[in-house]
């Protein structure tokens, strides 16, 4: 699990390549977890509204930026087997995929389309995002097998999360796919 | 038929397992097992073999001593099972779940709040709240910001201590039911440790 910036640097910085090499060698995913944005961003964006700087918005901007940067950096061309997990249903990424893909495709094309990288390399968890519409959008963009159940305990309630998932607008088959994620071993 | 009792017993039970499988059933679908033995003194030996074979299932069972068996065998077993396999419900897994190791808690001077008490817990409190929500397995990670942005030496030291805490708690989890697992850089195995160490080292090289 990576907690946001490391001394002000995103993970696409070349010095962090050994971590991705190791993850691919071990065939394990890396989880990119939110943390408050860079102090300069906090100052410029949230000085007057510190409550927004963390989970309500700052975390999302920080982690979303992190994940999009990884794609644009060409990291996944270098590591075609790399798997990344992101919480909070992708920090709004599913909602943005079309637009980001569309504009980048015109202005800064990569070997493959932006959305293709995202759909191939990312898995999203439901941590702290118990929203039917966000879940529906995530499934539509990513496919149900890319959605993994999470709570974000103890910051969110296990009961609330389970209650939400049990009533979420998905088939029972899809619900089980989300709840009982692929398990290699324990 | 000259084979020792243990071997005959094992072979008989293996035959039943194969027959069950061929019939689209399984050991956990057995409802009754009746065992005939020519020497009741074999009961303890049989029971040991049977216990391993039967697992957690508990069909009705009788062990009956008889004067002799056909062909001179020492054991004969008849078993009745239901058709079809039991659909074991898949495990419900939650994977972005947190904890704080004592080392990091001390370093960050975390206050003793209700949430922090849950983060500190790797046992009863955590499992109880999992049970309340029907969560079978938590994949735990050190709480944000974990060892990120510490100097390399401190990060490595605390990451190792964190691994050790998780490893110890994992070892004390009742088997075969595993309730807690750990994420990449907070894993308790040596490979995870190397990932953690590398991350810490990389972090340090980025230090201003």
Task: Note down, in words, how this protein is organized.
The complex is a heterodimer of chains A (186) and B (208). Chain A has ten helices and five strands, in the order βαβαααβαααβαβαα. Chain A starts with a strand and ends in a 7-residue tail after the last helix. Helices cover 50% and strands 8% of the residues of chain A. Chain A has helices spanning 17-26, 39-46, 58-72, 75-78, 88-91, 93-107, 114-121, 132-142, 158-167, 172-179; strands at 2-3, 30-33, 84-86, 122-125, 147-148. A five-stranded parallel β-sheet of chain A has the order 1-2-3-4-5. The model of chain A has no long low-confidence stretch (mean pLDDT 94). By secondary structure, chain A is an alpha/beta fold. Chain A has one domain: Metal-dependent hydrolases (TIM Barrel, Alpha-Beta Barrel), CATH 3.20.20.140. Chain B is α/β, with parallel strands linked by helices and 208 residues long. Chain B has two domains: 5-81, RutC-like (60s Ribosomal Protein L30, Chain: A, 2-Layer Sandwich), CATH 3.30.1330; 93-205, Metal-dependent hydrolases (TIM Barrel, Alpha-Beta Barrel), CATH 3.20.20.140. Chain B is built from seven helices and six strands, in the order αβαβββαααβαβα. A three-stranded mixed β-sheet of chain B has the order 2-1-3, covered by helices on one side. Chain B has a three-stranded parallel β-sheet with strand order 4-5-6. In chain B, β1 (30-37), α2 and β2 (60-65) form a beta-alpha-beta unit. The longest helix of chain B is centred in the C-terminal third of the chain and has 21 residues, at 152-172. Chain B is elongated and about 75 Å long. Mean pLDDT of chain B is 82; it is low at 184-208. The interface between A and B is large, with 49 and 45 residues.
